[in-house]
Amino acid sequence: MQINVPKFKNWLLAGFFIFFSLNTTQAQTISLKGKWRFKIDANDEGLKAKWFSTVLPGTINLPGSMAENFKGDDITLKTKWTGSIYDSSYFYNPGLAKYRQANNIKIPFWLTPHKHYVGVAWYQKDIEIPANWNGKRIVLSLEYPHSATKVWIDGVEIGSQYTFVVAQNFELPANLKPGKHTITLQIDNSIRAINVGKDSHSLTDHTQGNWNGVVGKMLLQASSPIYLEDIQVYPDLKRKIAKVKIQLKAPSNTSSTGKITLGATSFNTKEILNVKPITKAYSITNGVGTLEVELPMGDKIATWDEFDPALYRLKASLLSKDGKKDEKQVQFGMREFKAVGRSFQINGRPVFLRGTVNNCEFPLTGYPAMDVEAWVRIFKISKAHGLNHMRFHSWCPPEAAFIAADLIGFYLQPEGPSWANHGSSIGNGRPIDQFIYDETNRMTKNYGNYASFCMMAYGNEPSGKQVEYLTKFNEYWKAKDSRRLYTGASVGGSWPVIPNNEFMVRAGARGLDWGKKPESIATYAKQIEQFTVPFVAHEMGQYCVFPNFKEIRKYTGVYRAKNFELFEEDLKDHDMADQAESFLMASGKLQALCYKNEIEKALRTPNYNGFQLLSLNDYPGQGTALIGVLDAFWDEKGYITAKEFKRFSNSTVPLIRVPKFVYTSDESFEPKIEVAHWGKAPLTVNLTCRLIDESGKVVFTYKFGPSTLAVGELTQIGSIKYLSNHISKAGKLKLEVAIDGTEFANDWDFWFFPTKLPEIKTDVYYTNDLDDKARAVLNNGGKVFLNAAGKVVKGKEVVQTFLPVFWNTSWFKMRPPHTLGFVVDPKNPALAEFPTSYHSDMQWWEIVNKSQVMNLEDFPKGFKPIIQPIDTWFLNRRLAMVFEARVGKGKLIVSSANLSPDLKEMPSAQQLYYSLQKYMASDQFNPKFEVDFSTIKDIFETPSKQQFETFTKDAPDELKTKQKTK
């Protein structure tokens, strides 16, 4: 999906330019963008050798990373990556040997940068201090260095900082004279004393990459030595005031008095609201002063939320008695985001969080976007899919993201930059314990005024003494800053519960129980009944889709999709290169079906207050986790549009309750209609229900009169009844439920099969074994149907369920399921009597779920089965569930799904068997490929030649990778 920025509202465009100066003091600036001198310090010897007093020999362009400048080390099998590798098979698998060669390194774990470097690097630039800056406070501001920075001016160290979450600002010496000076930076991106965890998205190679450099704004700023150091705004909607807390600073041992004037103006509302300015006296003693002011916002205030993201700009002006001036502008919104019992509320109205996890995927740069436009695009795309919330997994985005989210109306949950696991932990007295407090304090100081900053957590899934540590963390923040809600950590279902969380972000109440027949009645109520605060599903979804190899050409920046190249070449080696697109589309349709049903299940669950998908877009690391309906560039893949996704993920969503999706003609179809409403205000609505056949014809209509939808409630509308006893031919009907006069609509597919099927006169020999009689029938030119259910040996290791691969098979060491749905040709005459598209759908559940698949590794080149399960892309085995072949003089169909003449309790399987039998009785039954009887029999006798081997018996979190260099 492409967002055309010039079409945005004028206020939004204007906002881009307004906000670049927000949260900064009034200052003169000099940009430091451009060419810098540079030197790599791989042996960490520069400090001892005093490189800060030398002229560095190389050059580099900043802002930018070393990788962007083609600086660093070539990628080899010995590259010391920052991130866990849980699958050693890449280093041993003989079939992947060619991808371990020095001139053809292709790793499957994540994207591959041009260059990689972990360690110390030095940057240097000459600057000119203007004469009119004499006597001013001069600050070197680096928006996003990665990560630990030391600064020298003319060979004298002036400071060091280590942060992943905010700009690093260094005050230059007060006695610095105008003229030429030299700034030297030492930047270290290695993990040292403070270990946030190598898989933390603030630095891991799984996502943004562990890069060295500086990005974002790079400035020298000159301002008054007496200045507004910090301003925090605390909205009070009930009293219609904004409490403003101001920190003042001056040179040490300096005292100052004067006055501060505060005023505020709304800037993105239809009616501009001006807040009457007030003036208060201030006092600074020994270089420090504080001031608290209550600013009346007027009788008419504009509040901020997802529907009306009204914003104000606070302007604070300082004037000292000796004439010194400073000014600071702050963006804020009048909003109150809180937990009331088990519900979220925004400004007193219930909220359901429809979220996605942002894992810092920026495949062109390898570091997060620093500009507002890029983040506006991300939030606009998310909102187009019906979402209103974003969690930042173990990282905090730059200020541009908060600015954009404020403008768009998006609720954010940034986190401390830590996944304290896999080599790190919290609560054990390590430096990270204090670092988390330092980082979250920096986050709230710099971004706390942004209305979108509604929630915060320490980070992701820690180890250590987490209950004790995170309980104190919550206590600290609840007492310090009430502008947002706090949860200790975002965690899976096996992590301990932190008792004083203000909301829960946990797994355990997610997923689809499609080991049983799919329905739309079950809820997650039982799983969340223990919680007394709002519950948000942690990392919902994680349904995989086959790689989109067309995406490879998009990687024109710092990364190359060598992982995709490996998978594509391996698919070709397995004789299926021509099926890549059909695998993508078919697996994508199944993925979308899963997301739809899981989100709807969440929406119909009482006291369920939100979900965080993992994620709307793909995750490029951890074995390559292709779990998004969008790619890593936030673009659509082709199998579902934003508009289609939004039908089941919106502020208002029609829902149904049905016990199943497949019916026979002697059953009545009686779906119960309801609506989940989390909109701006209550609605009084009429609904129209329509059944639409495969030609687009409306075969049934039912209208419901006025119903009132209360905000935050699931409203029961009523039931419809459709008698299908007239159905004599199998078919599909789509049920659409629409709220008249609105965009709110949803739809579901149902299948109706006749109870009795015509008898087929056939000479087909039906058997459960490829026995001597079957061989004789085939040798004599006859027809054989082999029901091989439960008999497969070659392919027995491949576990198929109706659900696709979770996250990916590499990261979880081939944990089942292993398939991604299947592909079929709906025009194949073998399926003429079985209604189907080219992909998995509900009518296939009883046929596919837990059915064996066959590995056709010895079949002729170009052979295509009738029903072809899609294998995990790490192995790309050619699989079959139903195939046909010429054998001897005869013709054969083999099914590893249980298909037989007696399937009365399985209408879909009965219908498919009927379709295959009718096909075999027709003149169209003429298999294209000839296969030896021995090759087919071998499926039931000999294991697969290609087997997955992990080369380790460690559990994933304990794995120690054994790397080979050849």
Automatic annotation (TrEMBL):
It holds the Pfam family Glyco_hydro_2_C. The lineage of its organism: Bacteria, Pseudomonadati, Bacteroidota, Sphingobacteriia, Sphingobacteriales. Residues 1-27 form the signal peptide. Belongs to the glycosyl hydrolase 2 family. The keyword Signal applies. GO terms for molecular function: beta-galactosidase activity. GO terms for biological process: lactose catabolic process. Keywords: Glycosidase, Hydrolase, Signal. Residues 342-539 form the Glycoside hydrolase family 2 catalytic domain. Residues 227-335 form the Glycoside hydrolase family 2 immunoglobulin-like beta-sandwich domain. This is beta-galactosidase. It comes from the Bacteria. Its EC number is 3.2.1.23. It catalyses: Hydrolysis of terminal non-reducing beta-D-galactose residues in beta-D-galactosides.
